[in-house]
Design a protein that fits this description.
Blueprint lengths: L5 E2 L9 H17 L4 E8 L2 E12 L5 E2 L6 E2 L4 H14 L26 H5 L18 H9 L17 H14 L3 H10 L8 E2 L14 E3 L6 E3 L6 H6 L7 E2 L1 H12 L3 E2 L2 E2 L3 H7 L12 H11 L10 E4 L67
Length: about 375
C-alpha cells in the first residue's frame, strides 16, 4: 500500500532543522540514560512528510529488537480521535446527528438516568460516568460490551461538568458504531478510516495477530530505577487484539502525522476525501468555552506520584507530531476531548445566537447547519461540559 504523504525534507517544508536536531539529541540521551527504551518521531506539513526518526529498541526481552520505521506504537488516547472519526463518518452519511441522544440508537442505554446524553456530550467528556469500566471479557464478547455500557451509572448530572473520561465514553462510542453498522467497530474503523486513507498497514484499532511482531513492548522503570521492566498486561496479545477504543490503538508515527494532515486539509488526504470540510469545521469547534477540563491532569499527577515521578519515562515514546499542529493558528479542539499531545484551545464564550469563530482566524464563520443540528432554531447550547 502506497503511503499517502509524499516524502520531503524539513527544509523543503519550510521548517528549521536545528530545533529538531536538538530534540533528537535529547531523546538519544534519554534512551542512553534508560529513561525509556525507544521513540519515534514524524513531522509533516502541507501534505508532505518531512522526516521520520526511529530510535532505540522495540523489545528488550528475551533479546533486544531494534525499532524500525514500520514499528507500531501504542497510541493511548490518540486512539480517541480515530474512534471519534468513525462517528463523524456516520453523521456525515446521515446515520445519526451529533445532537441525537445516544439512547435513540442504543436501546437500553437510557438506564440509570443516561437517557438524555447526546452524542456531543459523549464525545466531549461531559457524559457523567468518567470512571465506568467494562470487564475484560467484553473485549471480544460485544453483547456483553453492550450490556456493560448500558449498565453504566452516573457520577454527576450529564452536561453539568467537563471531566475527562479515560475510557468509558469511547466504549460507548464503539457500541454506538456497532449498533448503527451491525459491524465490529474495529472492522468499521479499518475499512472506513484506515484503509481509505492509505493507512491500512500503519494504523490499527484492534491489532491483527499477523502484525503483533511489529508492535513495541511497553515498559516502566524497575523500583530501583536500574532497568526497564516489561508491562505484561499492556503488551499481551489479548490487549493488542482488543483495540480498546479510548486507548488501545497502534500506529506508526508517520500514520498519525498523516491522519492529522487529513484534518488540517479539510478532510482530504492524498487525493482521497474522507470527510467534508463542513464536517471538519463542525468537529473542530470549541464546545466547552473557557471551562476547565477536570480529571485528566489530576489523574496524571496521581499516577506520577504513585510511580515516584517515573511515569513520564516509563513507556516507549511515539512523537506523533505533524508540524502544522505546532502553529498557534492551527491548533485543533477535536470533538473527542484531548489526545496525548494536544492542549485544549480556549476561546471566549459566545452568547446564544452569536456566530462561531473559526479557530485560528479573525473572521466570524457562520455555524454549520442542516442535519448536524436536529434542534429547534434559536435554542441555545446548554452551558455544560464538553471537552
Amino acid at each position: 500500500m502506497t503511503f499517502p504523504l509524499a516524502t520531503s525534507s524539513i527544509e523543503a517544508i519550510g521548517l528549521d532543522p536545528k530545533p529538531l536536531g536538538r530534540l533528537r539529541e535529547l531523546i538519544t540521551a534519554h534512551i542512553a540514560e534508560g529513561r525509556y527504551p525507544a521513540a519515534q518521531i514524524a513531522v509533516a506539513r502541507h501534505g508532505k512528510l518531512g522526516l521520520v526518526w526511529t530510535l532505540g529498541d522495540a523489545r528488550l526481552d528475551p533479546q533486544r529488537v531494534a525499532a524500525r520505521d514500520e514499528t507500531l506504537w501504542l497510541l493511548f488516547s490518540n486512539t480517541k480521535v480515530i474512534t471519534a472519526c468513525a462517528v463523524w463518518l456516520l453523521v456525515e452519511r446521515g446515520a445519526l446527528a451529533f445532537t441525537d441522544k445516544v439512547a435513540d440508537h442504543v436501546p437500553g442505554f437510557e438506564a440509570n438516568g443516561k437517557g438524555d446524553i447526546s452524542v456531543i456530550q459523549l464525545l466531549s467528556h461531559q457524559g457523567g460516568f468518567p470512571n465506568a469500566e467494562v470487564p475484560k471479557a467484553a473485549w471480544e464478547d460485544h453483547e456483553l460490551l453492550r450490556r456493560s455500557v448500558c449498565g453504566f451509572t452516573l457520577e454527576w448530572t450529564p452536561g453539568s461538568r467537563v471531566f475527562y473520561h479515560r475510557g468509558a465514553a469511547h466504549w460507548v462510542a464503539a457500541v454506538l458504531i456497532e449498533a448503527l453498522t451491525k459491524t465490529d467497530y474495529r472492522a468499521f474503523i479499518r475499512e472506513n478510516v484506515a484503509e481509505p486513507l492509505g493507512l491500512g498497514d500503519d494504523l490499527f484499532v484492534g491489532l491483527p495477530d499477523r502484525v503483533h511482531g511489529r508492535a513495541v513492548d511497553m515498559h516502566e522503570p524497575s523500583p530501583d530505577g536500574a532497568r526497564q521492566v516489561r508491562r505484561s498486561e499492556e503488551s499481551s496479545p489479548e490487549a493488542r487484539r482488543a483495540g480498546t477504543p479510548g486507548g488501545g490503538g497502534y500506529a506508526t508515527a508517520r500514520a498519525m502525522a498523516a491522519f492529522y494532515q487529513m484534518l488540517l486539509q479539510g478532510g482530504q488526504l492524498g487525493g482521497t476525501r474522507l470527510l467534508s470540510p463542513r464536517t471538519i469545521a463542525y468537529v473542530t469547534r470549541n464546545y466547552t468555552g473557557d471551562r476547565r477540563l477536570h480529571g485528566h491532569a489530576d489523574a496524571s499527577r496521581a499516577r506520577a506520584a504513585s510511580a515516584r515521578d517515573h511515569r513520564d519515562h516509563s513507556r516507549p515514546r511515539i512523537a506523533r507530531l505533524a508540524a502544522d499542529l505546532w502553529s498557534r493558528r492551527r491548533r485543533l479542539l477535536l470533538l473527542l476531548g484531548r489526545s496525548g499531545f494536544g492542549r485544549l484551545v480556549r476561546v471566549p464564550d459566545q452568547q446564544p445566537g452569536a456566530r462561531s469563530m473559526a479557530l485560528g482566524t479573525a473572521r466570524p464563520r457562520q455555524q454549520p447547519r442542516a442535519r448536524f443540528d436536529r434542534v429547534a432554531r434559536g435554542r441555545p447550547w446548554r452551558r455544560a461540559g464538553c471537552s
